[in-house]
Design goal:
This protein has 363 residues and is of the alpha/beta class. Helices cover 44% and strands 19% of the residues. A hairpin with a 3-residue loop joins strand 8 and strand 9 (289-296).
Length: 363
């Protein structure tokens, strides 16, 4: 899974990236500080993995990871190459989801490219640039489809109709995410990798005093996100940066408690991104390794096995499955077996979040 962090310059993108990945992207108070996209691996927080590790005591523990890409600040005209627009828009195209950072704090010492704080306006600025880039992509594909349709190709004619409808939709200032589509159109859109078709999480960057309850800016973004069916969370990115610098878990927890927060904002970001992409986790647990695996919700046991290795899916015979709650309660695999709680599942089994699985296969 790869998420791209986007937003206007000076909204806190690189500071957020540093918090998430523990990488040290340059964070400075001027546009285009991030010239090349910074890429970091972020561990997905999961207390279940920690508990399984305690019970099994393996040689190594491997959490699930999310790849985060910090993309330089976009400005008006980015779709036409303003700033360093084209390069960065290309970087967004390669991601699975977008974390759109919006400035929801007042601070005279941090420059705003448009002179005032207005997250809805800022969101629309970014949307416009992404929509213009999508229009460029769609119109190129439409031109190609029209040429192919002249030869009488049935699917090309259908694509022309779909693409013309899509052009009109985006020209009205709407993101492709809301475009109603049939199965053929779903495949067509997937091929084009349109920027505004990607799921989006709006991240409201607030000051420390608003870390717990948010503020009026956050409320405006939440209302807008609800209309779109998009994700929305708020965190104090600068404060999270301070927390990340603390050395011990105890110190970090004490800081969070003082703010009235139950969990670090960066953990909530990753979990929200997981939810955004309709992802879940299953585990494998043995003396060699306890590991978390990321899959799409609704995957069957063979498909989940294929995430480990394609041979596991091809030669799938059965899966031995323990629910996490049973493993946690009974304390070991042998105890689960003795209690008759281990299940044997076949090819049709839909994997549940938290399943502890062992696959039998033959190739």
């Amino acid at each position: 899974m790869k998420c791209g962090i986007v937003g206007l310059p000076n909204v806190g993108k690189s500071t957020l990236f540093n918090c998430l990945s523990s990488a040290k992207a340059q964070a400075a108070n001027y546009p285009f500080c991030t010239i090349e996209p910074n890429v970091g691996q972020v561990t997905v927080p999961d207390v279940r993995l920690e508990r399984l590790s305690e019970l099994v005591n393996p040689e190594r523990v491997q959490p699930a990871n999310v790849e985060i890409v910090d993309i330089a600040g976009l400005v008006r005209g980015a779709s036409k190459g303003e700033g360093l627009g084209n390069q960065f828009l290309g970087n967004i195209r390669e991601t699975n989801a977008i974390i759109h950072v919006l400035r929801c704090f007042e601070n005279d010492n941090v420059t705003h490219v448009d002179g005032s704080v207005n997250p809805i306006r800022d969101k629309e600025t970014i949307d416009t640039e992404l929509q213009l880039k999508d229009l460029e992509t769609i119109e190129k594909r439409l031109e190609k489809a029209k040429k192919m349709s002249k030869s009488g190709e049935k699917e090309a004619k259908l694509n022309v109709e779909s693409l013309e409808r899509l052009v009109k939709y985006v020209e009205e200032g709407r993101n492709v995410r809301g475009f109603e589509r049939n199965d053929r159109e779903t495949l067509l859109l997937k091929e084009m990798q349109l920027l505004t078709d990607k799921p989006v999480l709006y991240l409201c960057n607030v000051d420390e005093s608003s870390a717990k309850t948010g503020n009026a800016h956050v409320e405006a973004v939440q209302a807008m996100a609800a209309e779109e069916g998009a994700g929305c969370i708020h965190i104090a990115v600068s404060t999270e940066s301070d927390i990340a610098e603390l050395e011990t878990y105890e110190e970090k927890q004490m800081f969070l408690e003082e703010l009235g927060l139950e969990d670090a904002g960066v953990n909530r970001v990753i979990r929200a991104a997981y939810e955004l992409l309709n992802l879940q986790t299953y585990f494998t647990a043995g003396v060699k390794e306890v590991r978390a695996w990321t899959i799409k919700k609704g995957m069957t046991a063979p498909q989940a096995a294929g995430v480990i290795h394609s041979d596991f899916e091809k030669g799938f015979i059965r899966a031995e499955v323990i629910s996490y709650s049973d493993y946690d309660q009974l304390g070991s695999e042998s105890a689960v077996k003795e209690a008759g709680k281990m299940r044997v599942e076949g090819k049709e089994y839909i994997v549940h979040d938290g399943d502890v699985m062992h696959f039998r296969f033959n190739v």
